[in-house]
Design a protein that fits this description.
alpha/beta; Rossmann fold; 8 helices; 40% helix; globular
């Protein structure tokens, strides 16, 4: 058993897909850590693990996180990260782990597992990475449908193009989805490939 990692650019449908897999299949979302303030209605341990910046940085120095990133906000730098232990799904777990990551996060997690000292551990627990590589026309259609401004869409598409270059030309995915599919069908396909646990990369 292993964690399922979903990666995709703007309007790729990654968040919707993650919710569908969690709702209808055997996946449980990995709760990530953050230093940002809790918002009204959020619950510690459900939406995020909320910790102080000092605590976050200490954990980072101790090698607690598989990956982490920063976001500059009006309140200052905010940290987000996921714990290494959350990617390990033991055979007694009733649900497999699921997380949505950006390209940098995918690379960090992938390389962490690649450098595990115990080969059997790596083969047993390496995450299954799904890349939602949607065509530009699909991205634009979805973005305009939700009211995004053309200049904002163009900027995000350009940023994604650069951010995903290592994914596109690297070895950092197991399943690459290159065409739009109904969310029910896509969730079913991903669960099926994840369950098969094949080592070959698949493009659909």
């Amino acid at each position: 058993m292993r964690a399922l990692v979903i990666c995709g650019g703007t309007c790729s449908g990654k968040t919707t897909l993650a919710k569908k897999l969690e709702q209808d299949y055997k996946f449980k979302r990995i709760i990530t850590y953050t230093t940002r303030k809790m918002r009204p209605g959020e619950v510690d341990g459900v939406d995020y693990h909320y910790i102080s910046q000092d605590d976050f940085l200490l954990r980072a120095m101790q090698g607690f996180f598989a990956e982490y990133t920063t976001l500059e906000t009006e309140e200052g730098t905010v940290y987000y990260g996921s714990a290494k232990s959350d990617y390990i799904c033991d055979s007694e777990s009733k649900k497999d782990r699921l997380i949505v990551l950006d390209p940098k996060g995918v690379i960090f997690v992938h390389e962490w597992f690649e450098h595990q000292n115990t080969k059997s551990f790596k083969l047993q627990y390496a995450p299954y990475i799904v890349w939602l590589d949607m065509p530009q026309e699909v991205i634009m259609k979805r973005a305009f449908a939700r009211g995004d401004k053309p200049e904002e869409v163009a900027k995000r598409i350009q940023e994604d193009h650069h951010a995903f270059i290592p994914i596109r030309f690297g070895r950092f995915f197991d399943l690459r989805v290159c065409e739009e599919k109904p969310i029910e069908n896509l969730a079913y396909i991903i669960d099926a490939y994840y369950t098969l646990d094949k080592k070959d990369k698949v493009v659909i």
